[in-house]
From TrEMBL:
This is Band 7 protein. SMART domains: PHB. It holds the Pfam family Band_7. PANTHER family: BAND 7 DOMAIN-CONTAINING PROTEIN, MEMBRANE PROTEIN-RELATED. It comes from Pseudobacteroides cellulosolvens ATCC 35603 = DSM 2933. InterPro entries: Band_7, Band_7/SPFH_dom_sf. It comes from the Bacteria. Gene3D superfamilies: Band 7 domain. The chain crosses the membrane at residues 12-34, 46-68. The keyword Transmembrane helix applies. The keyword Nucleus does not apply.
């Protein structure tokens, strides 16, 4: 079975009927008592009994009123049988014997706890996510799972653990294109898709899923920080060397083009060595002035 819309009666209209029923029951009892005291008859006795029965019916009748706010629904159940769902906000009246289970259709935030899991490389990490969800199908939310709120919490934690194990924390080689730290949009989209597959049977729509916390576990955080620093230093050195080689080539080409000085291969090698030391060194170099000839 799937969710089906249920039309109900306006609460204001049935309130007027309810008032008339109450007045009729009181009037019948009072009239019967007065007639019994003055001139007892079967009609007066019947009026008292009828008024009493009508009052009992009125008491049961009042249980049929209920209200719904915007983005709220009521699932109607009669003795264990699903009768439909009311989504229209306002004051309504339905069968007094219906069980009216209200469900909020508003968007909700699930701020997950920090979970300690292993990424694809086996490194322990801490991860958490914020999930925005809402109920779309009230029948599935009420009857297909025991408690749809607890179901969302448990399945969300399971999905986050699964997604964390599919990707490395960071890209350390060329075998991976997506990482948890560097590909936030791709990971969030994968998490949203994973959650929708898991929560769809509970009638839940996942509107958004984002990682709210991502870090290495404390026991390996220091070592991973050193590795990141080493990677950054290597990348910076590589950039410096590439720039220095280009500057040396430009200097040699310019000297040769303008004919300022002619250098043999040995002098070129010495010049390249000196320029690379100057350009790639971490500290500033101290100049040495040559007061002799070029070859001294």
């Amino acid at each position: 079975m799937k969710e089906k819309n249920r039309e109900v009666i306006s609460g204001l209209l049935m309130f007027l009927v309810d008032i008339l029923m109450l007045l009729a029951s009181i009037g019948g009892v009072v009239w019967g008592i007065i007639k019994t005291n003055t001139e007892p008859s079967p009609l007066s006795i019947a009026s008292i009994i009828g008024g009493a029965v009508l009052f009992v019916v009125w008491c049961i009748f009042t249980g049929g009123f209920f209200t719904l706010q915007p983005n709220e629904a009521a699932v109607l159940i009669l003795f264990g049988e699903y009768k439909g769902t009311v989504r229209k906000p306002g004051w309504h009246f339905a069968n007094p014997f219906y069980t009216k289970k209200k469900i909020s259709l508003r968007s909700r935030n699930l701020n997950g706890d920090k979970l300690k899991v292993n990424d694809e490389a086996g490194n322990p990490i801490e991860i958490a996510a914020v999930i925005v969800w809402r109920v779309e199908n009230t029948f599935e939310a009420v009857f297909d799972v025991e408690n749809y709120i607890d179901y969302v919490k448990v399945q969300s934690e399971s999905a986050i653990r699964h997604i964390a194990g599919m990707y490395p924390y960071d890209i350390t080689d060329q075998t991976h294109n997506i990482s948890l730290r560097g590909s936030a949009d791709e990971v969030s989209e994968a998490l949203k898709k994973e959650l929708q597959e898991r929560l769809g049977k509970a009638g839940v729509i996942v509107e958004e899923a984002r990682l709210s916390h991502l870090a290495y576990s404390p026991e390996i955080a220091a070592a991973m920080l050193q590795r990141q620093q080493a990677s950054a230093i290597i990348a910076a050195r590589q950039k410096i060397v590439e720039g220095a080689v280009g500057m040396v080539r430009m200097a040699l080409d310019k000297l040769n083009e303008d004919g300022i000085v002619e250098l043999d291969e040995e002098r070129k090698a010495a010049m390249v060595s000196n320029l690379l030391v100057v350009l790639c060194g971490e500290r500033s170099t101290q100049p040495v002035i040559n007061t002799g000839t070029l070859h001294n």
